[in-house]
Task: structure prediction
Amino acid sequence: MSVRPEPQSNPEIPIFILTNGVHTDLVVPIRNEVADWSSFVQVQDTKGQDQHVNWVAFGWGDKGFYLETPTWADLKASTAFKAATGLSESAIHATFYKSVEENEACKRIMLSRVQYEKLVQFIKSRFDTKADGLPIYIPTNAN
Result:
């Protein structure tokens, strides 16, 4: 299925589509004039807790798949069944990066400000949030 491109727009903000061969993420600037993701997803919730990041990658899908399947070799039949049938919960994961390089597994896309604003709202709308509007954190040792 293809999607008709939007009319020509001013390419202002780079984002990336990143895959590790199992999961695919949308990578966006950690902060710019449109969004400050550092106030929405907390780098303190990561093992590294490195405050010097420039990008955040979001991926979402089956919760069990994310937490239990770092590589295809780790895939269990029960996890695949639940993911394929929608019988389990979904989750969003956030990964922080200092830099992002375009390569075979990581493709850059330039968005206009308006397109990026729509993407920010789309991503935020996918989170379950607490009363304070921040995402519900899922404690895990998964990477």
User: Anything to note?
Assistant: The first strand starts at residue 13 and ends at 19.
